[in-house]
Amino acid sequence: MLGILSDCRSSRDLEAFAKRHREALNQALGLNFKRWPTDATFLYLFNKAHLEQFGEVLQAWMISQIPGGATTLDQLVCDGKTLKGSAIETADGNHRFVAQVTVYARALGVALAQKNYDTHESSERAALKELLSTMNLEGKLIQADALHTTQAFFGWCLKQGADVALTVKTNQPTLHRQIHRQFEGKRQIPFTATAEEKRHGRDTRWELRAKEAPAHIKESWPGSAWIVELITTKTTRKGTSSVSHLFITSIRMPIFVAEHTLRPGDGLR
Fold first, then answer.
1. 3-class SS at 5?
2. Residue-wise pLDDT tens digits, 72-110
3. Domain ranges in the chain?
4. CA–CA separation, 165 vs 252, rounded Å?
5. How crowded is residue 147: how many other Cβ atoms within 10 Å of its Cβ?
6. How far, CA to CA in Å, does 148 sit from each of 80, 152, 248?
7. pLDDT at 119 over 80
8. Is 138 exposed, middle or buried (0-12, 13-18, 19+ CB in 10 A)?
């Protein structure tokens, strides 16, 4: 793990890393190795390792580093990425590639669990659901992007005892239009909050507006409670730009919504 975090990209890199740090590793791990592991040793280790069990052990260790343990692991942020260099062209002219879905623990600021999948054999939706199924979601807040904004995923999360906050984009045109209309014009907005950040020559201001979901949205999305608009305004020497993001959530306390949204560097943005 230390070697990978130090940008080792091959078994030979790992051997060189072990050679450079043999004395420090011996001291830290209470060992007395006279010689460092060779590249063949690392290849043998990776071939024999039970990666799923290792992932479970690593996950448990990371949770143990949070003050209060899993009881304070209150927010899980889900994201999917394509692995660089994995795309290949198929016989029919399309492309297949390896992608990865990751669940981040906001309390730790690190990835808590990951799963790779071949896009011709699975999908991000299926991979994320399989990944979350291995975790205790009771009392957690699950955040995911618009790809996962479906009634099926929303309802499944609620059945696991979790709250949910999903981004709403035009892949859900009806819901996107319904929420957008709720924040148009001079409508009364019962809850607002703001946050600001200045760094690297850029001023960023977040304005959150939230209100209870109207009856027709609650009927279509059982378990939904509040809808949210988050306006991000960035000012630089080149000018000012604003973008609006919409969300649907099962959270029933607007202050809690704001606490989990207006967080510079993480949260719903």
1. helix
2. 557 888 988 887 777 788 888 788 888 889 888 776 677
3. 1-49, 70-136, 137-269
4. 11
5. 18
6. 11, 9, 12
7. yes
8. exposed
